[in-house]
Write a structure and sequence with these properties.
Mean pLDDT: 93
Structural class: alpha+beta
Radius of gyration: 17 Å
Low-confidence stretches: none
Number of strands: 6
Distance between the termini: 10 Å
Shape: globular
Largest sheet: 6 strands, mixed
Oligomer: single chain
Length: 197
């Protein structure tokens, strides 16, 4: 149990059966709003990838640590609007959105769905990653809790002791920096939506 950030394949994204995770209402609501804004529809969602460890074709990470120190970090380095962009979405899509889209469609943890663009989230996450000097060793392919395990099972702590840096001073905050960075990168690389599950 718990909250995860995961990618979504075409079957689920366009699926009508909400009990089976279908998100057709979100997909159609997003497209209607994109058309209203004069932007192309988002119809090219790839099929869910078969799991192959280390392939980078799927994404699953669990939100385990407290977010308190991460929010403090955001307050120190980001504007309020940037923090809201980074932390306030329910759905992340590989579409450039200058403004968020809010749909009156219930999502996993709220009565509405807030959709933001991965390019915008990536820019904010990169700003934080630079501020904390996130090391290149932080896993990039996050298909089976790789990032979660790296931070929680000791590898991150060992690296921070061997090669100290700002990121190692607060591993909980660094985890969320890496999570949002990798989620945005994955969304753009694979062309898929990301959601909380």
């Amino acid at each position: 149990m718990g909250v995860y950030v995961v990618d979504v394949g075409a079957e689920e994204w366009f699926g009508e059966d909400e009990d089976e995770g279908g998100r057709a209402k979100i997909a159609s609501g997003l497209n209607a709003e994109l058309v209203r804004r004069g932007l192309p529809r988002y119809d090219s969602v790839p099929a869910a990838a078969e799991f192959v460890r280390g392939s980078g074709r799927s994404f699953e990470e669990k939100l385990v640590p407290s977010m308190n120190s991460f929010l403090t970090l955001c307050g120190a380095h980001l504007s309020e609007a940037e923090t809201d962009l980074l932390c306030g979405w329910n759905v992340l899509v590989p579409v450039s959105l200058e403004e968020e889209i809010e749909l009156r469609v219930g999502s996993s943890y709220s009565d509405s769905t807030v959709i933001v663009g991965a390019p915008q989230v990536l820019a904010v996450a990169e700003k934080l990653a630079a501020a904390v000097e996130l090391p290149p060793e932080a896993p990039e392919m996050c298909d089976n809790l790789d990032l979660t395990s790296w931070f929680l099972d000791g590898e991150a702590r060992e690296l921070s002791e061997a090669r100290p840096g700002p990121w190692g001073e607060d591993l909980d905050a660094a985890f969320y920096v890496a999570l949002y960075l990798r989620a945005a990168q994955h969304s753009l690389r694979r062309g898929c939506p990301m959601v909380y599950s």
